[in-house]
Design a protein that fits this description.
single chain, alpha/beta, six-stranded parallel β-sheet, 35% helix, binds zinc ion
Length: 345
């Protein structure tokens, strides 16, 4: 009976029947196969419908924001006050962004709800204004980490994650145990630790040996203190070495480093990691700044306005980390390595 229904009615009916007879004996192997195929087809159709519903665009652009110090009295245009930083985050939350780490971004593992947009928060130079722990081991008020956690608590779903690009400054800690405590706190609380070279040197024009020394030595230190192998690197001043591959992989003594992504310092949103325009060796970031002076067009406020006004250019998640969903006409922009995960609609 069951088999006759299968051959007569086709695949759409199979799922209905299978769903309605949960207590019956397991199907024979041939109808089992048909069931599975039908289920796969139906699951895929549901995924396509869900992606279309939220206008998923996982080939769209992602803002990677670049922060430095968060201090009460800024001395450079790279600094943000705690109030400014709070409002930067509030704006991201209001615009439907969900933070992901740089490591999650470059490896294409951005697990955020359907209809939301990823944003990467990056902090350069490992300053104490980003994270300092009090005597019981909690982030001090008004540090970047404390503010991020405070805003996240007000907006359920806004993940308190970020990437910290570390130099020998080590959040102002000079004692090894305190350096370890700070890095381990980040690791244990879901934050991402990246490489920013040991002495914050301009790598442009440096020999391969010098590049490997600068990147390898801080990688060694981060590894020894927190058992972390950075997945990404941020280039000091955004300057690439003579061969940009040197920033991605190299060796110092018996320690090797390998970065899945290398970040620049300016001046546009980043291509999706699934897009053909994505260059893992030179990923742009955006300075966190209001629309003033040279930031009228190319810093965070201006770009967030632009992304909001150009939703078809912005990355929107379909809520399924295993697929890469996008409108069919964008198919030529898909990186071939992600073809098997593609979900055009
Ligand atoms: Zn820096």
């Amino acid at each position: 009976m069951r088999l006759r229904v299968l051959s007569g009615v086709g695949l759409a009916a199979v799922v209905v029947i299978a769903g309605g007879c949960g207590s019956e004996p397991a199907p024979t192997s041939s109808s089992g196969k048909a069931d599975t195929a039908a289920q796969t087809k139906q699951t895929r159709a549901a995924k396509v419908a869900a992606a279309a519903k939220v206008k998923a665009n996982e080939l769209g652009q992602v803002p990677v924001l670049m922060f430095h110090r968060v201090i009460q009295n800024p001395t450079t245009t790279d600094d943000r006050t705690p109030e400014q930083f709070r409002s930067d985050l509030e704006r991201l939350a209001a615009d439907g962004y969900v933070p992901v780490t740089a490591a999650e971004f470059v490896t294409g593992k951005m697990d955020i709800p359907a209809g939301t947009h990823p944003a990467v928060l990056t902090f350069d130079d490992s300053s104490p204004s980003q994270l300092s722990l009090d005597e019981v081991g909690n982030p001090k008020p008004d540090t970047a980490v404390a503010i991020l956690r405070e805003v996240a608590a007000r907006h359920p779903g806004f993940r308190p994650v970020a990437t910290f690009y570390v130099t020998r400054d080590m959040f102002g800690k000079t004692v090894r145990e305190e350096q370890a405590e700070t890095l381990l706190w980040l690791k244990q609380n879901g934050f991402d630790i990246g490489n920013h070279t040991r002495d914050h040197v301009n790598l442009r024009g440096k020999s391969k040996k010098e590049v490997e020394e600068q990147i390898g030595s801080i990688a060694q230190q981060i590894g020894a203190l927190a058992y972390v192998k950075p997945v990404t690197l941020a280039l000091p001043y955004g300057n690439q070495p003579s061969r940009k591959e040197w920033a991605a992989r190299g060796k110092l003594g018996d320690v090797s480093y390998e970065h899945a992504g290398v970040f620049l310092a300016g001046y546009t949103p980043a291509p999706s990691p699934f897009s053909r325009s994505f260059d893992p060796l030179g990923i742009p970031r955006i300075r966190a700044m209001d629309k003033k002076g040279d930031c009228a067009q190319f810093c965070s406020t201006a770009w967030l306005d632009w992304l909001k006004n150009n939703p078809d250019m912005r990355y929107t998640s379909d809520g399924d980390v295993t697929t890469v969903a996008f409108p069919k006409f964008k198919d030529p922009f898909l990186r071939t390595t992600y073809k098997t995960r593609a979900l055009p609609y």
